[in-house]
Design brief:
By secondary structure, the chain is mostly beta strands. It is 0% helix and 48% strand.
Length: 123
C-alpha cells in the first residue's frame, strides 16, 4: 500500500487549495479513506473521511469549507479546501482504513499513511 499526498502550499486567509492523495497497491474503491492534520505542538486530528459506500464525514471546524472526494478511475483521494483560515495551518495526511461504514476520523482506525503535505495559511 502506497499513499502519496500532493497539493499543499502557502496561501492567504480566504484562499483555496486542493490536496490529492494517489493510492496504489490495493483495490482502491473498497476501503475507508480519510484526511488528517497535525499542527505544531498539536495532536493529529481527523479532518474528513469517506466510507466504503461513499458517505462523507467532517470535523466541525471544517464543515462547509472542506470537501472530501474520490476519483475511482484515477485511484486518487482529494480534499478541496476553501475559505482557509490561519488555524488550518498544519501538515495534512491521507490514510486508509479497512472496509468501513459511517464516520471514521480517529487516527487509530487507520493502518496506512502517506508522508504528508504542508499547508500554511497566512493572515
Amino acid at each position: 500500500v502506497l499513499l502519496v499526498e500532493s497539493g499543499g502550499g502557502s496561501v492567504q486567509a480566504g484562499g483555496s487549495l486542493r490536496l490529492s492523495c494517489a493510492a496504489s497497491g490495493y483495490t482502491y474503491s473498497r476501503y475507508c479513506m480519510g484526511w488528517f492534520r497535525q499542527g505544531p505542538g498539536k495532536v493529529r486530528e481527523g479532518v474528513a473521511s469517506i466510507d466504503s459506500d461513499g458517505k462523507t464525514s467532517y470535523a466541525d471546524s471544517v464543515k462547509g469549507r472542506f470537501t472530501i472526494s474520490k476519483d475511482h478511475a484515477k485511484n486518487t483521494l482529494y480534499l478541496q479546501m476553501n475559505s482557509l483560515k490561519p488555524e488550518d495551518t498544519a501538515m495534512y495526511y491521507c490514510a486508509r482504513a479497512g472496509i468501513c461504514r459511517g464516520p471514521h476520523r480517529r487516527p487509530t482506525e487507520y493502518s496506512f499513511w502517506g508522508q504528508g503535505t504542508q499547508v500554511t495559511v497566512s493572515s
